[in-house]
Amino acid sequence: MTDIKSKVQGIDPSAKPRNIQRIIGDADNVYEAICVLQSRAKQLSVQVKEELHQKLEEFAVSTDTIEEIHENKEQIEISKFYERIPNPSVIAIEEFLDDQLEFRYRDSLPAPEADEQS
Fold first, then answer.
1. pLDDT for the residue numbered 113
2. Can you say whether residue 77 is alpha, beta or left, with left for phi > 0 and alpha for psi between -120 and 50 degrees?
3. Higher per-residue confidence, 5 vs 82
4. pTM for the predicted model, two decimal places
5. Angle at 40 between CA 95 and CA 46, to 5 degrees
6. pLDDT score recorded for residue 112
7. How far is CA 42 from CA 25, 63, 114, in A?
8. Range 49-74 average pLDDT
9. 86, 8 contact by CB (below 8 A)
10. Helix axes 30-57, 88-97, angle to 10 degrees
């Protein structure tokens, strides 16, 4: 599992028009390509969320009173970084267009045999 910082280097975080024919590429149709992108975006979203929570847990302080709020500059910088990274969908599209994603069909399950009644 690679760090998200290395994945987002050089990726423009803004949405921009894409050539749909290039996205379809190896897929049979546009819907298939979108399903692949959606699945990868979900994986990236979970990965980013886990990574952010893991880094912020280092700063977790259990206190009994609400008045004791500590401002930590490093925690603020980490949060700002994760706010600025591209949307997981944008990252997934970039990976797909750079041929960094592999996808395959699940093996088809054999159809259940019908009971023959004579």
1. 62
2. alpha
3. 82
4. 0.70
5. 120
6. 62
7. 21, 34, 38
8. 73
9. yes
10. 130
Q: Considering the chain, what percentage of its residues have pLDDT values greater than 90?
A: 9
Residue 44, number of CB atoms within 10 A of its CB: 22
Determine the Cα–Cα distance for residues 77 and 116; give it in Å rounded to an integer: 68
Question: How would DSSP label each residue in 62-101?
Answer: --S-SS-----HHHHHHHHHHHHSPPHHHHHHHHHHTT--
Cα–Cα nearest to 43, from 1, 97, 105: 1
CB atoms closer than 10 angstroms to residue 72: 13
Cβ neighbours of 4 (radius 10 Å): 19
pLDDT digits (tens, 9 = 90+) for 32-48: 888 889 999 999 999 98
51, with CB counted inside 10 A (0-12, 13-18, 19+), is middle
- pLDDT reading at 116 higher than 70: no
Amino acid (1-letter code) at residue 87: N
Contact of 88 with 44, CB cutoff 8 Å:
yes
